Amino acid sequence: MSSMSYQWQKTLILILFLTVPVGLLLVFSIYPACYLLYLSFTSWDGTSVVKEWIGWANYRQIFMDPVFFRTFSHNFSYFIFGFVQIALALYLAVILNGKIRAGNFFKSVIFLPYIINSTVIGFMFLYVFKSDGGAVNILLNSLGLESWIQDWLSSPSLVNHTMAAIAVWKYTGVTLVIFYGGLKSIPNELYEAANIDGATGFKAFRYITLPSIKSLIELSLFLNLSGALGAFEFPFIMTKGGPFGASDTFITKTVDTAFKFQSFGLASALGIVFTILVVVAVTLQQKLIGSKGGEE
């Protein structure tokens, strides 16, 4: 080692340090992605040894059958409710960033749903939103609001909104933590100077708080879009895509295609298409946010 030049020693150390992470990346990311791409061109049923090559047939079926892309209209509820989640988390973060008693307690309570297993939450809210004897309908009845009683998980027009609202309850806490950390990093001197100039309340929020956490807002918007497109856990646990496919999402449709209909080749193609759609959607959103930021 001593006879090697410093440059060669540095290069060797870099190679040794990179070997493990690059190897893990190849084994657990690159190889599965390439194998998924290969399977998308086959008619594999998930069990047989032979994987018959069928070319672009799976992709033609996806783009010729509107049922696959119709499910994205169900994801739209999660996307819209995601903005409610971001606004609510930001509002709560601003409040908790001030001088408030038992602030740590409230932060813990708001964050708690995020660490609860989604399966537990799904089964819990099945009883909350039951049409007959559910907690929500019982509460509405006791308040004299019988006209508001609904079949929350059996109505095609309400089921996606209901589960999107549950997602807001679960994920508001983690978004709050992101914003709270950003607010804590803003120097108090900025607010003191703004206070001297008469910029208090909403003006301080608009001209100091929002610009300071712009990158965190962009991160939240990215998580909202990717999370809405990838909605899976609650429709899979609570409704199995029902009633009559009204709560199916692209991911639940992909899982059903693979495990219910034993068409792993088609499901692999759906996975590839979904990945491309997410990349395109996120890129467009980032371009839109960037262009608006540039105009400002």
Automatic annotation (TrEMBL):
Belongs to the binding-protein-dependent transport system permease family. It comes from the Bacteria. This is ABC transporter permease. It comes from Paenibacillus pectinilyticus. It is found in: Cell membrane. One of its GO terms (cellular component) is plasma membrane. It is a multi-pass membrane protein. Keywords: Cell membrane, Membrane, Transmembrane, Transmembrane helix, Transport. The chain crosses the membrane at residues 12-38, 76-97, 109-129, 162-183, 216-238, 264-284. Residues 75-285 form the ABC transmembrane type-1 domain. GO terms for biological process: transmembrane transport. The keyword Transport applies. Its main location: membrane.
